[in-house]
Amino acid sequence: MQSIPQSHFLYVWHLTMIIGAAIMLVAGIVIYILHKIRLSSISDPKDKYDYANQKEIKTYKLVFLCFGITAMLLINLYGIGKIFHVELWFFVRLFISIAGGTLVSYVAVLILDYYYPTLLDKKLRKWRYSPRVNPKTGGKMRLLGEEEEDVHLEKGMQAEENIFSIDYDVWIDENNGDVKIEKYAGHLQASKCNSCGFHTMKVVKEEITQQPTADTPGELIKHYQCSYCKSIRATAFKISNKEIDDYKTATLHSFRKNKNIALVRVEIHFDATGKKFFEFASLEQAQKFLSEYDSDQV
Ligand SMILES: [Zn+2]
């Protein structure tokens, strides 16, 4: 077979595809590695949570966009040694490459939007509930329980709209009463949809059905909608009428001395399965349970 001189255009075209594919592949890998380095350089669990919650899915979409373009460019090299002039096949291949590249990116976006949030949620939970350390003393802090967990602390409410879609976690150092309050944006993080099982349930609307007063907590209704199957759900939350100082005075010492305790509720957060509640008639029973629970774990 006699060799046919390749058109200059095709030579430059193919060379561009090879170089472009290499650049896009490396770009995708570098973006991924930089994200991992940045994430592991953050030591505070709350900062880690915020960074991953805001950036991880967006970053991975960018990574897969790079890989999609890589695939598109590589498809344009198909039959490189066999064809030497721009003919119909050139445009057929070009069309297939665009379709192929789009498919890779589109499938990745679907996975990242509907499947990946379940995995991300597991990591986020781990960071949200991992024990906090008091930066001043190095002492362990305790997360306040269910009743207070979804409160919107008076002092934390700078403006009325701040109350919406914000969850506050209150950590207390029982040795000296130091309080650390962490803010979580409820509308950003999706929770699990009970209908379809994806982590695509997001807050779409909120209303205060009862304003908190000095004596009674208020009530806030959050309306959720699943962005995948469109099913809806509504949950009521208490709005705390307490202020941060109330938590500061609630040390373990004052708790132990209190003889009027009717019920002690222990709430345990698991990474995989969420929360479990245990109720006891006295503090002693609860302490006994906890010490045995610990030894079970070991
Ligand atoms: Zn759903």
Task: Please name the defining characteristics of this protein.
8 strands; 298 residues; alpha+beta; single chain
Please provide a written account of the structure.
The protein is an alpha+beta fold. Helix content is 46%, strand content 19%. It is built from seven helices and eight strands; from the N terminus they run αααβαβββββααββα. It has helices at 8-41, 45-75, 88-129, 146-149, 244-249, 252-257, 283-297, and strands at 142-143, 166-172, 179-185, 201-210, 218-226, 232-239, 264-270, 274-280. The strands form three sheets. A three-stranded antiparallel β-sheet has the order 1-2-3. It has a three-stranded antiparallel β-sheet with strand order 4-5-6, with no helix packed on it. Strand 5 and strand 6 (232-239) form a beta hairpin. Helix 1 (8-41) packs antiparallel against helix 2 (45-75) and helix 2 (45-75) packs antiparallel against helix 3 (88-129). The mean pLDDT is 80. Bound molecules: zinc ion (ZN). The site of zinc ion has 9 residues, from loops.
List low-pLDDT spans.
none
Number of strands: 8
Main β-sheet: number of strands, strand sense, barrel status? 3 strands, antiparallel
Global structural class: alpha+beta
Major sheet strand order: 1-2-3
Small molecules held by this entry:
zinc ion
What's the average pLDDT? Answer: 80
Helix content: 40-55%
The rough form would be described as elongated
Q: What is the string of SSEs from the N terminus onward?
A: HHHEHEEEEEHHEEH
Please report which band the strand proportion falls in: under 5%, 5-15%, 15-25%, 25-35%, 35-45% or over 45%.
15-25%
Q: Which radius of gyration do the C-alpha atoms yield?
A: 28 Å
- From the N-terminal CA to the C-terminal CA, the straight-line distance is 75 Å
> With helices defined by DSSP (H or I, 4 residues minimum), what is the helix count?
7
